[in-house]
Design goal:
This protein is an alpha/beta fold. It contains 13 helices and 18 strands. Strand 17 and strand 18 form a beta hairpin.
């Protein structure tokens, strides 16, 4: 007699921390993974609901550590989280730079957290930022409230919502953040170099490649070096966002070798697009830092296997097409929608093409992001006791990415028309289906705020 030991059992090829367990099953109860066993284990049949995903891969849901839900107010938590669900992303790490201003005080943090819990379909953790001057009490309060980390910029994208923090303020802030155990992530571009080079190439804005020329590689490496020196001095955990080419990761390896606590990411677009695509993409390919060379793109794939790159993120920035339509590349917004693309593209371009092992992909888009940002106690692994955050991908499905079918309010994609191999068929957040058979089934308010746990 069935006593409903499990709320749900999923059969399939499970991608576990130690490798792929073929013809296996995962048992889920009260939103948690409570059992991992063999497909033929009679105990695993003790359930009222089964998802038979034989032949498919059952993965821990992706943790996208770089998402801007509110850079464009047309997006917001609901729409961004619907896109996440459709792409197998079960946890979003939300950026603190909103169109309405920075999240750098406890009241702003609590207000946004409340919005999240009312509107999101998937779970979310929240980054915060710092004042341009002082604000050290806010740093301590925000860390205590469960922020998963701090984000700062060395480039002045927008003086109101995305300002540059000068090196002196970074030094003092890093020292305070180090006391909390939280990581601090940096947008590493040298403001003086970029400003000078924008002026140098401003008259050539009709050529979309001039965006890349105005942000040379050394503007990125010079800023990254400064940030790593400050991190080494203060002992803070430093994370480098959206790194575009191999030298950055080589420098990271050096600083790690002398004891600095540094992690670094790259993004989907730097692995799949290059500066050669700019004439075709026009402003849809305008991203900061910019797309680099075709060789840089290929070399990043090699680094993914060695552990030099800690994670892959989307840097989801869902601007409406009106912000991408000016003939002068410098007059357009920077960034592209991507949270729905992260898992499908890394599987298709990496795993399906033999560039990346399944276990490496899971490490890069699930396990490491969760660990670095203090979510590793609940997220990022198919392990008993963890949240039942699961993405199922059918490796046999071949399809073409069509921007008209995407969930984001942006309505466009830099990957439109890309041939894809492997398709997300189901997404579950804490055991609840939020995406199935091409439709978002999750409801606003299902997503939870995940309080980070860091060791100082």
């Amino acid at each position: 007699m069935v006593n409903n030991s499990y709320d749900l059992v999923i059969y399939g090829n499970l991608v576990l921390p130690g490798g792929v367990a073929y013809h296996s099953a995962v048992g889920i109860k009260d939103g948690k993974i409570v059992r991992i066993g063999d497909r033929d284990d009679t105990d695993m049949s003790d359930t009222t609901e089964i998802i038979n995903a034989e032949g498919s891969y059952v993965l821990p849901g992706a943790v996208d550590a770089h998402v801007h839900c509110y850079s464009s107010l047309d997006e917001g938590f609901y729409t961004a989280s619907a896109a996440a669900a459709a792409g197998g992303v079960t946890t979003i790490i939300e950026m603190p730079y909103d169109a309405t201003g920075m999240i750098c005080t406890l009241p702003a943090f609590e207000e946004k957290k409340q919005q999240l819990e009312q509107q999101s379909i998937v779970d979310m953790a929240m980054l915060v930022t710092i004042h341009k001057q002082d604000g050290y009490d806010h740093i301590r309060q925000l860390a205590e409230a469960g922020a998963c980390g701090f984000k700062v910029s060395m480039f002045n994208t927008d003086s109101f919502r995305f300002p540059r923090i000068d090196d002196g303020q970074l030094l003092d802030s890093f020292a305070v953040i180090a006391e909390t155990g939280c990581p601090v992530g940096v947008h590493a571009e040298n403001d003086e170099i970029v400003r000078r080079y924008i002026d140098k190439y401003r008259s050539q804005g009709a050529d979309p490649r001039s965006h890349g020329w105005s942000r040379p590689k050394v503007s990125e490496s010079a800023a990254a070096l400064t940030a790593m020196e400050l991190a080494y001095e203060t002992g803070v955990k430093l994370h480098l966002y959206h790194c575009t080419y191999p030298r950055i990761f080589q420098l990271v390896d050096y600083f790690r070798s002398i004891g600095a606590k540094v992690t670094a990411e790259t993004c989907t677009h730097y692995l799949t697009l290059s500066e050669e695509d700019m004439p075709r993409l026009q402003a849809k390919g305008k991203i900061n830092p910019p797309l680099r060379t075709k060789q840089d793109k290929e070399d990043l794939w090699d680094l993914l296997k060695t552990g030099s790159i800690d994670m892959i993120t989307s840097d989801h920035a869902p601007w409406l097409i009106g912000r991408k339509s000016d003939e002068d590349i410098f007059n357009n917004a920077s960034g592209a929608p991507g949270v729905e693309h992260l898992l499908p593209i890394i599987y298709s371009e990496g795993v399906a093409k033999g560039k990346l092992a399944l276990t490496d992909m899971v490490r890069l888009i699930s396990q490491r992001p969760a660990d670095v940002f203090g979510l590793g106690h609940r997220k990022g692994r198919l392990t008993e006791g963890y949240d039942a955050d699961i993405a199922i991908i059918d490796p046999a499905a071949a399809w073409t990415l069509d921007e008209r079918e995407l969930q984001s309010s942006a309505g466009w994609s830099a990957y439109n028309g890309m041939s894809m191999q492997g398709k997300v068929t189901h997404t579950l957040v804490r055991g609840t289906l939020v995406y199935e058979a091409g439709a978002v089934t999750g409801k606003a308010g299902h997503g939870e705020f995940i309080k980070a746990e860091h060791l100082a």
